[in-house]
Design brief:
405 residues, alpha/beta, Alkaline Phosphatase, subunit A, 9-stranded mixed beta sheet, two-stranded antiparallel ribbon, 31% helix, globular
């Protein structure tokens, strides 16, 4: 449990959780909180800057192929189509049936208010704080939501892996759960290494890829050991991948008293060889969503909204190493039986160079906080002024786009 949150604590709280917190390099803490309403909210933080242009491809925009001549531009008849203009990355094919069933939507050209250095750490801080700056911030926007609702009690909570779920840090009662596992490198060491490498995009991406590969299990075809350069795979302990365990545990709790869940998936920093590195991350996201659906059961699934968001998108132009660099506008993923599916929300800004932010990035047309605020309003009944002034200070929610069914 936490009370106030200093900048230093915002970055280092994992130190007090214990060494076993580094069970998986691809997942940061998961937290749950009980609440006196019936809807369930799952917030998934996609750390590293997901390329929304590759995940939800604007194949109908004629400029897309110009910017990415060898990356994510070809329309294949096997690739999942959304609405004739947008198509899904093939790694998201497993969740395409949710789109067809009206249980999956996206928000494109979305971003936080962050526009300065395109730093992972600053971007993630603002994403989870839900503010326009970090000055004086002591809590995350999900915790501030809980602070506004009477009857909140501590129920079941967990934190898994390195770092914190800052979005839930604050005075409202939230517990953390950390699965026990030995580790070969501490979460603090990983955090330090990432900070040192942040100014070298290729080095940072290589380190991120090494962490991602360290999560791979033995090859099902050969049985040969896969990548374990940094630590023993958590799946050896549980028999299942870490993100599957997280999702199953979360579903179990959400069938009971828990109403709010937050966890993170890493591996989205695709500076190099994006065709190889983005697919596994999207597969983990798809599997997490489908595991939640299966674990919740049809009745609870119909009351559930899943919101996946990232700190920023990536450049429109592919770089010289087959990847994309830190950008601005990106995409959000909305899933669940409570979501009004089958829509790509947001105003498409176009990909002409004059339409881009700083003539390099997808221009944001939606503040990521607005869809989250409208979903919270429907879930908790909080009034608009509370959401715009307290939960998300400085937000103008705009018109309700109808994110919920």
């Amino acid at each position: 449990m936490t009370s106030t949150l200093s900048r230093r604590a915002f970055l280092t709280r994992s130190a007090v959780i214990g060494c076993s917190a580094a069970a998986s390099p691809l997942l940061t803490p998961v937290s749950l909180a009980a609440a006196p309403w019936d809807m369930r909210l799952v917030v998934i933080i996609l750390r590293g800057g997901m390329d929304g242009l590759d995940a939800v491809r604007p194949l109908g925009d004629p400029e897309f192929a110009t910017w990415r001549p060898t990356l994510s531009t070809a329309r294949d008849k096997q690739d999942p189509d959304l609405n004739g203009f947008f198509g899904l990355h093939p790694a998201l094919a497993s969740v395409h049936p949710l789109w067809q069933a009206g249980e999956l939507s996206f928000v494109h050209a979305a971003s936080t208010p962050y526009r300065v250095k395109r730093s992972h750490f600053d971007g993630q801080d603002l994403l989870e704080a839900g503010t326009i700056s970090m000055a004086g911030v002591r809590d995350g926007w999900l915790n501030r939501t809980l602070q506004q609702v009477p009857g909140i009690e501590m129920r079941t909570a967990f934190a898994l892996g390195r770092g914190d779920q800052k979005v839930l840090l604050g005075p409202a009662q939230v517990s953390d759960w950390v699965p026990g596992a030995d580790m070969e490198i501490s979460p603090q060491a990983i955090r330090l290494a990432e900070r040192i490498m942040e100014d070298d995009p290729e080095f940072h991406a290589a380190f991120s890829e090494a962490l991602m590969l360290s999560e791979e299990v033995d090859s099902p075809a050969t049985g040969a050991p896969a990548y374990r350069s940094l630590r023993q795979d958590m799946s050896e302990i549980s028999g299942k991948s870490a993100h599957v365990r997280i999702s199953q545990y979360a579903a179990d709790r959400l069938r009971e008293e828990t109403r709010v869940v937050s966890f993170s998936l890493n591996g989205w920093d695709t500076h190099n060889n994006q065709k190889r590195t983005l697919g596994p991350a999207l597969n983990r996201l798809s599997t997490s969503i489908l595991t939640l659906k299966d674990g919740l059961g049809p009745d609870i699934w119909q009351k559930t909204a899943i919101v996946a968001m990232t700190e920023f998108g990536r450049t429109v132009r592919q770089n010289g190493t087959g990847g994309t660099d830190h950008g601005t506008g990106g995409a959000m993923v909305l899933a669940g039986g409570a979501i009004r599916g089958g829509h790509v929300f947001g105003d498409w800004p176009g990909l002409e160079e004059a339409d881009l932010y700083a003539r390099r990035d997808l221009m944001p047309t939606t503040d990521v906080r607005a869809p989250a605020a409208w979903i919270i309003r429907a879930m908790t009944g909080l009034d608009r002024s509370t959401l715009e002034r307290t939960v998300f200070p400085g937000l103008e929610m705009g018109a309700d786009r109808g994110y919920l069914a």
